[in-house]
Amino acid sequence: MNDRVTPAVHALPDGEAEISLVVRLPWEDVARLGQEAGRLAAQTQRPVTLDEAVSHRLRSRPAAAAHAKPADQSATAAVSALPRITGTG
Fold first, then answer.
1. Is residue 33 within 8 Å of 83, Cβ to Cβ?
2. What's the pLDDT at 2?
3. Axis-axis angle for helices 50-60, 27-44 (nearest 10)
4. DSSP codes, 30-89
5. What distance in Å separates the CA atoms of residue 69 and residue 79, rounded to the nearest whole number?
6. What is the reported pLDDT for 39?
7. How confident is the model at residue 46, as a pLDDT?
8. Which of 6, 22, 24, 41 could potentially form a cystine with 48 if both were Cys, beta carbons 3.0 to 4.6 Å apart?
9. How confident is the model at residue 55 (pLDDT cuts 50, 70, 90)?
10. Could you tell me if 7 and 19 are in contact, meaning their C-beta atoms sit under 8 angstroms apart?
11. Burial tier of 37 (Cβ tally within 10 Å: 0-12, 13-18, 19+)
12. In angstroms, rounded to a whole number, what is the distance separating the alpha carbons of residues 15 and 83?
């Protein structure tokens, strides 16, 4: 299969899985991820990559179910605060 359609999934020794994606982001979102990496680096007292910052952000914020209707505006605000991901079509 074509990796652009079906990305490869790799099992990791710690029981997690890794998937590689190509995501096109506006520069403003890349800057926000850089800020997130800076905050995480300050907390952990070590250098942090943008990949690690994205992974940390996704794991540390509760995800709203795609099929669920938001109960209030705060749920919508939490989702809108995440970086926008745009596809190439």
1. yes
2. 53
3. 80
4. HHHHHHHHHHHHHHHTS---HHHHHHHHHHHSPPPPTTSPPSSHHHHHHHHTSPP-B---
5. 12
6. 93
7. 95
8. 41
9. confident
10. yes
11. buried
12. 27
User: What does the block give as tokens for 57?
Assistant: 């952000």
Q: Which two tokens stand for residue 27?
A: 């520069």
Amino acid 66 reads A
**pLDDT (mean) for 21-36:** 90
Length of the chain: 89
Contact predicate 9/2, CB 8 Å: no
Distances (CA, A) of 69 to 73, 79, 83: 11, 12, 20
